[in-house]
Design brief:
The chain is an alpha/beta fold. The protein has a single domain, classed as TIM Barrel. Helices cover 43% and strands 11% of the residues. Helix 2 links the parallel strand 2 and strand 3. It starts with a helix and ends in a 12-residue tail after the last strand.
Length: 131
């Protein structure tokens, strides 16, 4: 968690207010670590299935199903590193959800919170930056 925060601070100049636990896995230790950092956990309630290898059409079908169920909110999990998600599923999901009357917002806006604990200036890359 600290390395991700450090990268965001250096590259973007921000301290996030939220953290998404990898794979959605968390326990009391993760909750405590996030709390110490002043962060809230952000998890999803809808999975497009892209990380499981489902087809773009199957992800679209999942969006059709959830939009048809009309939950009050949908916090979706998608991965932009999956080409079909970025190029096919997300444009479809945006259109489908808008057509169903949803307004797309950030997690912070949905929860009525600020997205960052603080915003500063990005740093200049130096020899301490490691990937």
């Amino acid at each position: 968690m600290w390395r991700v925060e450090q990268a965001l601070q250096r590259i973007c100049g921000v301290q996030p207010a939220f953290m998404r636990p990898p794979f959605g896995n968390y326990n009391n230790l993760v909750r405590e670590a996030a709390s110490v950092r002043g962060q809230s956990l952000a998890t999803w309630d809808f999975d497009s299935g892209d990380s499981l290898g489902v087809s773009a059409q199957a992800s679209k079908n999942r969006y059709n199903t959830v939009a048809g169920q009309r939950p009050r909110t949908i916090l979706a999990l998608n991965h932009e590193t999956v080409a079909s998600t970025a190029q096919q599923v997300i444009p479809y999901a945006i259109q489908r959800l808008h057509a169903a009357g949803y307004r797309l917002v950030t997690v912070a806006e949905c929860l009525g919170r600020q997205p960052y604990q603080w915003v500063g200036k990005p740093k200049t890359k130096d020899s301490s930056w490691k990937c």
